[in-house]
Structures are given as C-alpha cells and as structure tokens.
Amino acid sequence: MCRNCGAIVGAGADQCAVCGTSVASAQPRPGRLAPPDRETLRFARAIVDRPYKFTMIFLVANFFLFLLMWQSSGMSFSVLGLFPYEVLLAYGAKLNALISERHQWWRFVTPMFLHVNLLHLLVNMYCLWIVGPYVEKLYGSAKFVFFWVASGTVAVTASYLAVVSPEVVMKLGTLGRFILKTQDEPSAGASGALFGLVGVLFVFGIKFRHELPEGFKRAFGTGLLPMIMLNLFIGYVGRGFIDNAAHLGGLLSGGALALVVDYRRPGERAGVAIVWRVLQYAALALVAVTFLMVARHLNDPLPAPMRNGTVDPIGQTPNHLQYFTAVNEAQEALSFFLVNNDASSLGSARERLESVPSLDEDADKLRDRLRVHLAQATTLSQPPGRGRQRSPQQFQQQKNELIKEINVWIMDYERWVETNGKKYGAFLKENATDARSEEP
Question: How far apart are CA 332 and CA 182, in angstroms?
Fold first, then answer.
C-alpha cells in the first residue's frame, strides 16, 4: 500500500502506479555497523554469565604478597621502584644457585606470584584482569587453575635452563641473545603464566575456529598474533632485563595444554570431570606447600655472594654481581668482534667495565687488563689514520696477536676464580666461563 495515496502497490513494484511515490524500503545509512548475528549474541551471553572467581583470587594473592614484600623492605616508597635482592630471595624468587646447590625446589612455583616493583605488578595484574576471565569462563575454574600453575611452573623452569655460559650464547647468535642469559640473577613475575593464558586463547581460537561465531574468531586465534608479536618485540628490545625464556616457555606450554583440552561449550552442564577437580586441588596444594616452604626458610642466610658483596645503595646490586656482569659483557663484546667483526658493543662494554666497583687487588688488575684489550679491539676495528693503509694480512696478524693476549687473560682469570674468587660463592665458576675465540 502506498504511504502517500493509499493505493495498493503490486508485489515487487518500486513506485506507486497512481501517484508515482517511491515505495522501496529505506536503505541503511552508510557507516552503520550491522547488528551482531544471533549466534554471536547467544555465545557471548553464555560465556559472560559464567563466574571467574579464581582470576580474582590470584589478583588478590599477588597484591597481598606484594604488600608483605613492601613491609619487609621497610615500607619505604623508594623500594617500590625495585625491591632489594634480599627480599626477593626471601619470598621465593628464582635463583639458579639456590635451586641447584640448596635444592630449594619451591622456587620453580613461587616466582609466578611475586613482582620486583610496583610497575611490574600493575602491568601484570592488568593483563590478568583482561585475559584471565576469558580463559576461566571458557574452560571453567578447575582448568584455569591448572593452566595458570602449570604454565607458570614451566615458564620458571625455562628461565632456570636459560642461564648458560657466554660461549653458548655466542654460538647461537641472535637467538641466543634473545632467549639466554649469562647471569644468575633473581627472577620473578606472573608474566610467564600470563603468556600461558595467551597461548591457551591462541590455540583455542584456531582449534575451534569452525564452531566459533565470527565475532569470537576475530578475538581469539590468529587475532592474537599482533599482540603476541608486539610482546616478543618488546622482549627483544628489553632482553637485558626481560626474561624471554620464561615468556616463551609459558606461551608454548599454554598452547600445548589447549591442544589437548576441550572447553565448556554454551549450553553444556556445569559439571566438572573428577580428574580436573583433582588437578585443581593438586595445583592449589602445590602453591600452598611452596609458600609454607618459603615461610620456613624466610630467615635463612643469603648465598655467600650476597653476604660478602656490599650492595650499591642506588641499584641495590651487590658489587660482585656488577663486576661479573661487566666482565661477561666485555668477553661477549670481544668475541663478537673477533668472530664476526662486529664492534658495535665494544664501546658500551668498556664503559660498563670502567664503572664497576673494586673487589680485590687481583680482580682489579684483571679488570684493567680487560679494559686494555677492549681498547685494542676498538682501535683495530677502526680504519687507519690518514695516509696510512692496512692490508688484510696485517689486519689478520694484529687480530691473531690480540686473540693470544685475550687467551692469556682468560687463563689468569680462571686461576683467580679458582682461588680468591671462591669467596664470592662457588656458582661464580659458572659465570666465569671460558670465552676463548679460536684463531681463524
């Protein structure tokens, strides 16, 4: 029927035959989003209505432990930028020496509930607030708890295995510098477990892509690739202080769990298989036992290096760790130059070595000799002065002479580690690994 004159309009007609008024249905205005389909709405309502209580429990637990660590640090606002090593270790941060030498196995679990400073805590807890509810609503609380504890433990284990000698890092090149570390330093944070949850959602979106509504296909699976790649890039840029091995360990373990675990589809009963309930209770019991072990050992003496090395009041880093960090960086820089003709890190390594505090007379002599070798390598890496030329044979001869001098330094350094260096802790032998470069 025509809206203008009331005449009957034939089916399929675009205008009234009497008055000529258009009777075509109004077209949607451009730029308007189409309403979501019913299947997406049904799926979303079924997911949103589910509880996520253990996400909140883990949030509260992380904040509670942070407050305890702050109290143990004297409630000073200055330590919110970085807790002292003593507090981190007392509350269960990962340190390879304490795991391997004192068999403190609980440090594979406790670090996922600890954070080194306030910013670290806030960033990780915001990510848990965003990602955690999705996983818990999709899989249920029992599976969520198991995912969190399992992927977090795997992440800490990966971090433990990633502390290697500089020689291994050199052999692996860029990949080694991204994943591996040469220093055994306290490590903590929930990011490994968080990467595990991201891995769960990534595999979930791919595994169930044929039954997910369109809106959820874009949110999970390959839709998470930009976020994953961005975080890996950030990890590469900050590889000196970001534990990339833990992040990758958590991501891969979470993805592996999602490959074999099904999720709670909309409309399914809320019943939980007995095996998942047992795994949930076992995971929670493991966390409880590990923190009971932390409480029992809360007042244990620190490792020998932490006791003997004085602490820099600004960086809260023991002097011996600053020394060995600088020495290892200098060895890596020299190896990069001698093996790959890459002199890009010689200058920063030399500056770092010049700023380290004194340990003892022999250690200072070794440091000064290494500074000379860095200066020699820097000179060798630069073109000769105006009017002078250097043939490839001369360059190789000077390079071989420098290699011989560095090899002599390494042997003297190893002797010092086996004698005076022992007072800084037996595990320092691991840090003072042979970094010799073979002559071409």
Answer: 10
Closest CA to 137 of 255, 215, 205, 46: 46
- Cα dist from 238 to 231, 312, 349, whole Å: 10, 22, 17
Residues with Cβ within 8 Å of residue 334, at least 6 apart in sequence = 346, 349, 373, 374, 377, 406, 435, 437
389: number of CA atoms within 13 Å, CB side?
Answer: 3
| Burial 82-92, CB ≥16 within 10 A → b, else e | bbbbbbbbbbb
- CA torsion sign for 99, 100, 102, 105 is positive
Q: What is the pLDDT of residue 271?
A: 63
Non-local CB neighbours of 263 within 8 Å, separated by 6+ positions: 138, 139, 204, 208
pTM, two decimals, is 0.63
What's the CA gap between 32 and 17, in Å, rounded? 32
SS3 37: coil
Rg of the chain (C-alpha set): 30
pLDDT in tens, 222-262: 778 888 898 888 888 877 778 899 999 999 999 999 999 98
| Cα 111 from Cα 104, distance rounded (Å) | 12
Instruction: Tell me the three state secondary structure of residue 391.
Output: coil
- What is the residue type of 59? L
Query: What was the pLDDT predicted at 284?
Result: 96
- Say which residue the tokens 């429990």 belong to: 57
Task: Give the length of the chain.
Answer: 440
Tell me the C-alpha to C-alpha distance, in Å, between residue 306 and each of 59, 74, 78, 148, 316.
Answer: 31, 19, 21, 32, 11
Burial of 125 (0-12, 13-18, 19+ CB in 10 A): buried
Report the C-alpha dihedral over residues 403, 405, 409, 412, rounded to 10 degrees: 120
Token digits of residue 189: 């944070």
Collapsing DSSP to helix, strand or coil, 163 comes out as: strand
Closest CA to 353 of 338, 366, 342, 362: 366
pLDDT tens digits for 409-434? 888 888 887 777 666 543 343 333 34
pLDDT digits (tens, 9 = 90+) for 282-300: 999 999 999 999 999 888 7
Rounded Cα–Cα distance for residues 365 and 372 (Å)? 11
Write the single-letter amino acid at 30: P
Report the C-alpha gap between 393 and 150 in whole angstroms. 56
**Interacting residues of 251 by C-beta distance below 8 A, sequence separation 6+:** 195, 196, 198, 199, 202, 228
